[in-house]
């Protein structure tokens, strides 16, 4: 890892505090298991597979939080070059525009500049993952029936961050010497969502060509 990159990632230029797993909890053990697979250099395709005897909801919950933290960090590295002026809409090239919608202020899909979209998105995800009724932290507390639906929505929206970063800010990623890191994170994310069918194919469309080259 280059020094510049080390500085960037050490600063943890995220928008938000990281959601951490409490040591001693089942989630923490799963988080360690997932990290160990990656650190051992295990093929990413294999690393995403559900470990024997583990619960799928738990495995997905751990990865949703982990991807939220990582993608937050990636966006943090290029956020100084993503402004209301450079990115007046949240887009992925000329064909794709993402509008923000939530249950509160933005009841209808609304066009907002990319930095505003990112801020709304990270706030919204943080609320979801810190909601005990959606992401229970106590072992034995069941996940709600809607959990997978919420996880899919979070992951689909996080995918849009990759789309925007790759299509509009990849020169900045290169400048920071972060290309290998971002590519690895993308591959990990892509293999995970496709392994468990957590994102609609139409969401994956904007990066289809790149993905076919990168993720054989």
UniProtKB/TrEMBL annotation:
<keyword id="KW-0479">Metal-binding</keyword>
<feature type="binding site">
    <location>
        <position position="169"/>
    </location>
    <ligand>
        <name>Zn(2+)</name>
    </ligand>
</feature>
<keyword id="KW-0862">Zinc</keyword>
<feature type="binding site">
    <location>
        <position position="87"/>
    </location>
    <ligand>
        <name>Zn(2+)</name>
    </ligand>
</feature>
<feature type="binding site">
    <location>
        <position position="82"/>
    </location>
    <ligand>
        <name>Zn(2+)</name>
    </ligand>
</feature>
<dbReference type="InterPro" id="IPR005301">
    <property type="entry name" value="MOB_kinase_act_fam"/>
</dbReference>
<protein>
    <submittedName>
        <fullName>MOB kinase activator 3A</fullName>
    </submittedName>
</protein>
<dbReference type="Pfam" id="PF03637">
    <property type="entry name" value="Mob1_phocein"/>
</dbReference>
<feature type="binding site">
    <location>
        <position position="164"/>
    </location>
    <ligand>
        <name>Zn(2+)</name>
    </ligand>
</feature>
<dbReference type="InterPro" id="IPR036703">
    <property type="entry name" value="MOB_kinase_act_sf"/>
</dbReference>
């Amino acid at each position: 890892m280059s020094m510049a990159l080390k500085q960037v990632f050490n600063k943890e230029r995220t928008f938000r505090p990281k959601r951490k797993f409490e040591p001693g909890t089942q989630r923490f053990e799963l988080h360690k298991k997932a990290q160990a697979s990656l650190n051992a250099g295990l093929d990413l395709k294999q690393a995403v597979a559900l470990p024997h005897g583990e619960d799928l909801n738990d495995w997905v919950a751990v990865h949703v939080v982990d991807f939220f933290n990582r993608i937050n960090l990636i966006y943090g590295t290029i956020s100084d070059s993503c402004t209301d002026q450079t990115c007046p809409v949240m887009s992925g090239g000329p064909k794709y525009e993402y509008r923000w919608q939530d249950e509160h202020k933005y009841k209808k899909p609304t066009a907002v500049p990319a930095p505003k979209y990112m801020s709304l998105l990270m706030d919204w995800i943080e609320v979801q993952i810190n909601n005990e009724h959606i992401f229970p932290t106590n072992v034995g507390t069941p996940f709600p029936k809607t959990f997978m639906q919420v996880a899919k929505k979070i992951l689909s929206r996080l995918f849009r961050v990759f789309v925007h970063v790759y299509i509009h800010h990849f020169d900045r990623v290169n400048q920071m010497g972060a290309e290998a890191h971002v590519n690895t994170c993308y591959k990990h994310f892509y293999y995970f969502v496709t392994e468990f069918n957590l994102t609609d194919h139409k969401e994956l469309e904007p990066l289809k060509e790149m993905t076919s080259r990168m993720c054989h």
